[in-house]
């Protein structure tokens, strides 16, 4: 109410003695991120003697940047007859926030006198947009230029090291942190734990945690996630129990990591206890990531009915939220993108538990609701078709794969995965010819691809083709494993042939 009253007073009064009211209004626009309000304030400023005041112009750039109005911010910046370092920093921050990193880098190179804030913006901005190498380069150059490194510099650089899984650089930054006044900072400790966790160095992460004089929820979350992602997974549950014993309340990040650990361990009893806590507190019920992990846990544990109940509650809630709560296409897209995790987990749960018709029905429902499937979705659909030995359904699934842009000749890992799954499906459906065509069209293959062909040919009675494929595998430099040899032995039975002992031992 006070903000709206001030707005009416200011926009209707052109005889103000100073720019302070405009500054307060722009601060309000910064917090509300309202582009219309910012433009209305700007329109009034232009009619006053404060229109050329550098402080007000800087605030305008800042406000437009926060609102996502880069074009407006650019116009203010370009028309300014005089600029200071804050001007440059505000516009660079706007560029970085909206993802225009190359433009920000060019502008940064033009700053007459960059300050600590300028450098921190570059280190942080590039790290936040996954340009980790460049983030580290800015951090190193900042240090060379003798700028003081603060918690923002160190935190962003450690985030970049985590993104790169660069333990060597992370350890060097850790050494610099220990020489600084941030060595005991709880947030710095949490960032170090996260960095070592992402680098797979569990012992180093634990050492940092044990050496912290003070810990907060983020610190405990970082260590729990470290064990959940790197193992031993049971340690994640032990750390969670310790956290509770210390009297710290878990948040949604804590619970999602613990539920994920329960899923990996198939610890359904513990998972049920966590779910009970989720249901008890309203603030956790609507968390999408946490709900995704619950669906995954129940599906992996064979409790498909419970998984479906969580899923249905999520699906109904988020369909409503996309209509009534979500503002803007980008937010709606994020909801859909993240929600596919739950669809995949439940479809996989049905497939793994032999409920193949349910899996296919859920895929059809997914298509009706216009949710874009991923390679995991199609992998599970193809597995369901294979389990049912339904060639017609498998071919329809193959058509869907191609329609959604997965090209088996393009080489990415997910396309190799789909290629292998297609071979397996066709072989189990009795169509060795189709399986062979998929294999032929795959530019990149792994040992799973070769095994699928050898075992598939053997199981379909094509012993000669299986043995020929085995020879090709050896020529291609792929090392056979026990699955390969089972397929080869099965092929020998079908061909009433035998393998010389030296041929087998030469592959070991």
TrEMBL record:
Among its keywords, does the record have Transmembrane?
no
For biological process, the GO terms are: RNA modification
Instruction: Please give the Gene3D superfamilies that the UniProt record associates with this protein.
Output: Tetratricopeptide repeat domain
Q: Where are the PPR repeats?
A: 53-87, 115-149, 216-250, 287-321, 339-373, 446-480
PROSITE patterns in the cross-refs? PPR
Q: Which residues form a coiled coil?
A: none
Quick one: signal sequence residues?
none
**Which UniProt keyword terms apply here?**
Repeat
Q: Which Pfam families match?
A: PPR, PPR_2
Q: Which InterPro entries match?
A: PPR_At4g14850-like_plant, PPR_rpt, TPR-like_helical_dom_sf
Q: Name one GO molecular function term.
A: RNA binding
Q: Which family does it belong to?
A: Belongs to the PPR family. PCMP-H subfamily.
**PANTHER family (UniProt xref):** PENTATRICOPEPTIDE REPEAT-CONTAINING PROTEIN
What is the protein's name according to its record? Pentatricopeptide repeat-containing protein
User: To which species is this protein native?
Assistant: Rhododendron simsii
Q: What is the lineage of its organism?
A: Eukaryota, Viridiplantae, Streptophyta, Embryophyta, Tracheophyta
């Amino acid at each position: 109410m006070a903000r709206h009253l001030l707005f009416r007073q200011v926009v209707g009064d052109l005889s103000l003695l100073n720019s302070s009211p405009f500054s307060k209004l722009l601060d309000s626009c910064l917090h509300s991120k309202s582009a219309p309000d910012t433009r209305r304030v700007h329109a009034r400023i232009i009619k006053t003697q404060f229109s050329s005041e550098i402080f007000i112009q800087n605030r305008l750039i800042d406000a437009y940047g926060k609102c996502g109005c880069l074009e407006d911010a650019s116009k203010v910046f370009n028309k300014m007859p005089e600029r200071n370092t804050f001007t440059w920093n505000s516009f660079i921050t706007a560029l970085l926030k909206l993802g225009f990193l190359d433009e920000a880098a060019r502008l940064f190179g033009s700053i007459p006198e960059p300050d600590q804030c300028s450098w921190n913006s570059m280190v942080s901005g590039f790290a936040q947009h996954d340009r980790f190498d460049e983030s580290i380069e800015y951090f190193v150059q900042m240090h060379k230029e003798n700028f003081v490194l603060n918690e923002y510099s160190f935190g962003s650089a450690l985030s970049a090291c985590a993104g790169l899984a660069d333990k060597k650089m992370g350890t060097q930054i850790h050494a610099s942190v220990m020489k600084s006044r941030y060595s005991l900072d709880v947030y710095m400790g949490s960032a170090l734990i996260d960095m070592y966790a992402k680098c797979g160095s569990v012992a180093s992460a634990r050492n940092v945690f044990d050496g912290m004089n003070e810990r907060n929820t983020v610190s405990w979350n970082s260590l729990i996630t470290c064990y959940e992602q790197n193992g031993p997974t049971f340690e994640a549950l032990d750390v969670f129990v310790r956290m509770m014993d210390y009297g710290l309340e878990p948040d949604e990040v804590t619970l999602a990591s613990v539920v994920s650990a329960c899923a990996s361990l198939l610890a359904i009893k513990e998972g049920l206890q966590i779910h009970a806590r989720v249901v008890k507190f309203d603030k956790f019920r609507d968390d999408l990531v946490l709900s995704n992990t619950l669906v995954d846990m129940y599906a992996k544990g064979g409790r498909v009915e419970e998984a479906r109940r969580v899923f249905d509650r999520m699906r109904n809630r988020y369909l409503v939220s996309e209509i009534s709560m979500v503002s803007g296409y980008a937010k709606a897209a994020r909801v859909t993108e993240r929600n596919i995790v739950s669809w995949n987990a439940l479809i996989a749960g049905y497939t793994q538990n032999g409920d193949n018709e349910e899996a296919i029905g859920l895929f059809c429902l997914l298509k009706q609701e216009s949710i874009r499937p991923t390679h995991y979705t199609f992998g599970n659909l193809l597995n369901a078709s294979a389990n049912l030995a339904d060639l017609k359904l498998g071919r329809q699934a193959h058509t869907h794969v191609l329609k959604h842009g997965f090209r088996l000749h393009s080489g990415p890992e997910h396309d190799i995965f789909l290629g292998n799954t297609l071979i397996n499906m066709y072989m189990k459906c009795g169509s060795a010819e189709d399986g062979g065509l998929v294999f032929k069209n795959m530019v990149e293959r792994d040992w799973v691809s070769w095994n699928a062909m050898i075992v598939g040919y053997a199981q379909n009675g094509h012993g000669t083709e299986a043995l020929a494929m085995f020879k090709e595998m050896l020529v291609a430099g792929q090392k056979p494993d026990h699955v390969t040899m089972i397929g080869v032995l099965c092929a020998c039975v079908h061909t009433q042939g035998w393998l010389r002992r030296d041929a087998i031992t030469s592959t070991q």
